[in-house]
Amino acid sequence: AQLDTLDIIVLAALLLGTVAYFTKGTYWAVYGDPYGNSLATSNGAARAGKSRNIIEKMEEQDKNCVVFYGSQTGTAEDYASRLAKEGHSRFGLNTMVADLEDYDYENMDKFPNDKLAVFVLATYGEGEPTDNAVEFYEFIGGEDVTFSEGASAEDKPLQNLKYVAFGLGNNTYEHYNSMVRNVDKYLTKLGAKRLGAAGEGDDGAGTMEEDFLAWKEPMWAAVQEDMGLEEREAVYEAVFEITEKPDMDAEEDEVYLGEPNKNHLEGAQKGPFNANNPFIAPIAESSELFTAKDRNCLHMEINIAGSNLSYNTGDHIAVWPTNAGKEVDRFLSIMGLADKRHMVITVKGLDPTAKVPFPSPTTYDAAIRYHMEICAPVSRQLVSTIAQFSPNDDIKAEMVKLGSDKDYFHQKVIDRNLNLAQLLEILSNGAPWTKVPFSLMMEGLVKIQPRYYSISSSSLVQKNKISITAVVESLHKPNTPHVVKGVTTNYLLALKQKQHGEPEPDPHGLNYALTGPRNKYDGIHVPVHIRHSNFKLPSDPSKPIIMVGPGTGVAPFRGFVQERAAQAKAGKNVGKTVLFFGCRKKEEDFLYQNEWGQYKEALGDNFILHVAFSRDGPKKVYVQHKMEEWSEEINKLLEQKAYFYVCGDAANMAREVNTLLSKIISKHRDVSEAKGEEIVKAMRASSQYQEDVW
Ligand code: FAD
Asked: pLDDT of 353-385, one tens digit each?
């Protein structure tokens, strides 16, 4: 299946746009660093006048090990920090952590051979580098990569470079851990020497943390041997210095009470709005899409008028969450900080290379509420580290056991879905853990991450209003003490309840600070930014499209269909628009049930909706069954160069749909299954097959 010339031009333009978008990120990091100003005082000139020369930087700071990270959601960054800390505390390495986008790599041929480079690299989406790793990846994998001395690949210019590599991936994606695999391959080809095996963590199998822990011991042994290091008794050394300022008032103008950066602190918010600077957007409308009593799915219309933000159909919107008051209270209380929650604190990196994860001065309350991912599953390594600060020896023994016994840890912590404060609360019976340094919590917990949503409106139809369709996460396993409440979706639910003045606005007692720092989010507001994607309609609306989107996977397709209906209304020639949707029951969770008719009116017979209900009859019917039923039609449309889209669950559905499509093609074109698979691969390569999965 080939694309026509116009599509290739459009795809090339899209790709260029993406590169431009990514590279822009590089500059944001320099002048748009949200913490730049607050750090200028705490971290000195190191970050203010940033050098992009890593070797110089290491010499200057007397470092012999740099841990680079390519991170999208913060996990790789967290692992990088952990490796840096461990390298120092156990082996006496002078380590620093570095964001890949902060440095240039032309001089890697001069990297001294008594130093070590560690690469912690997440793979994103379809085998792509994370946003902050794009430039590095393009450089190191470039066909004509040349280094400062003009050396090219054949000269094996990186013979002095010793490195260690770990990848974070998801085996449900086709290009599993391709970042670490490729970077490892490129570095080896350039003559660099890897110490230990290149590790691979698998989020798909849910074993990321254990894969990481299992990989790092033999890796350290290899590093130790090569660099002649001696292991020492690891003592905890804080990365950050936290200073309480009892004579400062939290209400003073320069104190950050959750404002994401200086710009927001200083009054009216200013653009450009991006991943470092969210727009506090009004929620114009919100409603409930499910009729089921025990589950919620939100539809929200977010107004971006006047922000200078723009989106294209198929893009993602990122929502910046706030932790639930209930969990903030629990965390403060177990840390013994409840009475001091509004104490002003300043945070400073004890090492000039340490990046303070939030602006300061701030308060304990604001740091925990707005910046720390306190509700996430607990890492076993963090439990090990906290053990030494236990309130008493019995608890310490239990913490040591949890930290060292993988199965025990799973049984007691992971299987019970506990977050850190919940675990500590259970272990100490609610007694506070006052010996745990706050710095350790900052190091051990990741920065709170914006959550992405596939925009469910068309930019052609509503340029300034972004729709989202989000199912509210609520997970209660039997025999577990707490219900896991998704951080962002419950925050959005609370906003929706406030907007509608619902009688019991907070049925779960989560108690979100909905008005934000200094009431800046008052009314119904939420901080957002936009991430452009490559998930796009064909430029020519007369091309047929097939969409598979069960559950909230239908989100971008509502946008697609809305757009094509508008185009049809405007007299454009719009091709077949086929949507496979699936849910449990027609009467409970059939998303946008009342809207599809209106699109049908505009699109006529060109709009075909196939719906699968998994719990409405004696037989479970899924979108895959519907696809099989309509396989002949699917194949026919594909032969007419239909675009094929899948959105939603990455773990099972997307993969099954991929396999099924190969089978459908094989059956109806009378070719082998292997050939069917090949055809689907080629469709993916030419963007005739696109996925938006999570
Ligand atoms: P989180 O707090 O992040 O929790 C998520 C899940 O993690 C929980 O349900 C639970 O299973 C697990 N978990 C959390 N804490 C614990 C714990 N302590 N112990 C054990 N397990 C735990 N979602 C949509 O609804 N609609 C969309 O259109 C959509 N589009 C997306 C597009 C992209 C590109 C991506 C990457 C994701 C998309 N998502 C979408 C998913 C969305 O970003 C969020 O992941 C989702 O809404 C959950 O966020 P949350 O903060 O409410 O939950």
From this structure: 898 999 999 999 999 999 999 999 999 999 999
Looking at this predicted complex, what is its ipTM?
0.99
Q: What residues pair up with 287 in beta bridges, in sequence order?
A: 299
Instruction: Encode pLDDT of 561-591 as tens digits.
Output: 999 999 999 999 999 999 999 999 999 999 9
631 is catalytic: no
297 and 203 both lie in a single domain: no
253 is catalytic: no
How far apart are the C-alpha atoms of 552 and 392, rounded to whole Å? 47
Tokens coding 476: 């209660």
Q: Does residue 648 sit within a domain?
A: yes
In a shared domain, residues 289 and 357: no
Q: Is residue 38 part of a domain?
A: yes
Q: What is the DSSP letter of 640?
A: T
Would the pLDDT of 690 be above 70?
yes
User: Are 649 and 513 part of one and the same domain?
Assistant: no
Dump pLDDT digits (tens) for 39-63.
333 333 344 457 899 999 999 999 9
| Total count of domains within the chain | 4
3-state helix/strand/coil string of 63-104: CCEEEEEECCCCHHHHHHHHHHHHHHHHHCCCEEEEEHHHCC
Residue 660 belongs to a domain with what CATH number? 3.40.50.80
Q: Which structural domain, as residue segments, surrounds residue 552?
A: 545-693
Q: What is the CA(486)–ligand 1 centre distance, in A?
A: 6
Which ligand 1 atom minimizes the distance to the CA of 471? 25
Average pLDDT, the chain: 92
Is residue 318 a part of any domain in this protein? Answer: yes
Do 166 and 119 share a structural domain?
yes
CATH number of the structural domain spanning residue 402 = 1.20.990.10
Please list, in sequence order, all residues whose beta carbon lies within 8 angstroms of the beta carbon of residue 41, skipping any fewer than 6 positions away.
none
CATH number at residue 77: 3.40.50.360
Establish if 287 belongs to a structural domain: yes
Nearest residue (by CA) to ligand 1, atom 45, is 451
Reported as half-sphere exposure (CB side, CA atoms, 13 A), residue 265 has a value of 22
Q: Are residues 501 and 398 in the same domain?
A: no
Q: What is the pLDDT of residues 201-234, one digit of tens each?
A: 999 898 999 999 999 999 999 999 999 999 998 8
**Whether pLDDT at 3 is above 70:** no
| 692 is annotated as an active-site residue | yes
pLDDT in tens, 138-161: 999 998 899 987 888 888 999 999
Which two structure tokens, joined as six digits, stand for 235? 């003592």
Q: Tell me, in angstroms, the distance from the centre of ligand 1 to residue 471's CA.
A: 9
**Rounded Cα gap, residues 377 and 369, in angstroms:** 17
| Stretch 128-141: mean pLDDT | 95
Let me know whether 605 and 660 are in one domain.
Answer: yes
* Residues near ligand 1 (Cβ within 6 A): 316, 321, 375-377, 417, 419, 451-454, 469-471, 473, 475, 484, 486-489, 552, 555, 694
Using pLDDT thresholds of 50, 70 and 90, give the confidence band for residue 4.
Answer: low
* Closest CA relative to residue 622, chosen from 581, 663, 578: 581
Say yes or no: 70 and 97 in one domain: yes
DSSP 379: P
Q: Please give the distance, rounded to the nearest whole angstrom, from the Cα atom of residue 473 to the centre of ligand 1.
A: 7
**For ligand 1, atom 14, which residue shows the shortest CA distance?**
376
- Please tell me whether residues 405 and 526 are part of one structural domain: no
